[in-house]
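To the wet lab folks,

You asked to see what we're planning to order before we commit. Fair enough. Below is the target structure as tokens, and below that is the sequence we designed to fit it. If anything looks off to you, flag it before the synthesis order goes out.
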């Protein structure tokens, strides 16, 4: 009796190399904790954005400009947000024990936030990440952003003002009624310039002309930006041309916010090559020229 021989072909699939991730540095500005915060006020500021003010304790109310929180959003009717929502800081007052967020309703998480009423409790975890760095030797800085990125940049005005540093804020939006943070910037003494798609003034070429004017007037010791890749590219070009330092707060989808899940990994320039960093852990604020726009 002959026994048939069976032949098997095994195909080995090449496993791609694990991305190089830059060594983490501890975000030690204020530490982080989870706590229940009380809603003090919650209102619409225009057709798309809402302003949320919470009463809280330390370390939440000691958050620094550029840092963010992970919010455990309530479930809106018929939906169940699975993960916390990362939200950049709009304002923090340690003396008053408050923290503020400015957000746009875009998905289940923010639809859940929108149902919060005065007196409700919200679970907040933070502050997280590395915030903006301000050099006291600067005399005047420029903050330029678009959309929700304007909320991230707003706390800079107060932080710069306490150091006697002037601020020019160039705020971009689709329409004039959707410009946010302009009032807050003005309250801290900043000069505010607005550009919009509707008015045809938000294009990169026009924005660059405005920035070159500020540079020529000696009113641009540093750039700060958030919320627009095309604006980031303009700033990087000017930063290289004039040797102006800058920082960018990056917006990215996140899951844990602690660097463990690697959900928010992005490419960054490093020397002559590219490295991968976690936005939540190594940022969300990075050197302007490191970011790959």
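Sequence we intend to order:
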């Amino acid at each position: 009796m002959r026994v048939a021989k069976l032949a098997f072909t095994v195909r080995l699939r090449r496993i791609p190399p694990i991305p190089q991730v830059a060594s983490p540095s501890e975000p030690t500005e204020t530490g982080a904790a989870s706590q229940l915060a009380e809603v003090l006020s919650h209102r619409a500021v225009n057709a798309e954005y809402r302003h949320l003010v919470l009463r809280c304790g330390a370390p939440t109310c000691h958050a620094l400009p550029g840092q963010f929180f992970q919010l455990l959003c309530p479930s809106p009717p018929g939906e169940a947000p699975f993960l916390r929502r990362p939200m950049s800081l709009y304002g923090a007052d340690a003396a008053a024990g408050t923290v503020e967020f400015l957000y746009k309703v875009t998905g289940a998480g923010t639809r859940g936030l929108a149902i919060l009423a005065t007196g409700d409790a919200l679970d907040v975890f933070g502050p997280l990440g590395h915030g903006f760095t301000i050099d006291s030797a600067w005399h005047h800085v420029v903050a330029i952003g678009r959309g929700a990125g304007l909320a991230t940049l707003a706390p800079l005005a107060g932080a710069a003002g306490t150091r006697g540093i002037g601020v020019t804020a160039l705020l971009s939006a689709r329409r004039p009624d959707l410009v946010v943070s302009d009032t807050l910037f003005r309250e801290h003494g900043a000069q505010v310039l607005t550009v919009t798609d509707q008015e045809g003034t938000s294009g990169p070429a026009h924005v660059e002309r405005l920035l070159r004017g500020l540079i020529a007037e000696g009113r641009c010791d540093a750039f700060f930006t958030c919320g627009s890749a095309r604006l980031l590219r303009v700033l990087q070009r000017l930063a290289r041309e004039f040797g102006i330092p800058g920082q960018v707060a990056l917006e990215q989808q996140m899951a844990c916010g602690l660097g463990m899940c690697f959900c928010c990994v992005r490419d960054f320039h490093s020397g002559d090559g590219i490295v991968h960093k976690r936005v939540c852990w190594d940022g969300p604020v990075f050197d302007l020229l490191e970011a790959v726009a």
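Structural context that might help your review: Residues 1-29 have pLDDT under 50 and may be disordered. The helical segments are 108-113, 149-153, 155-161, 182-187, 204-216, 229-242, 279-282.

Thanks,
Computational group
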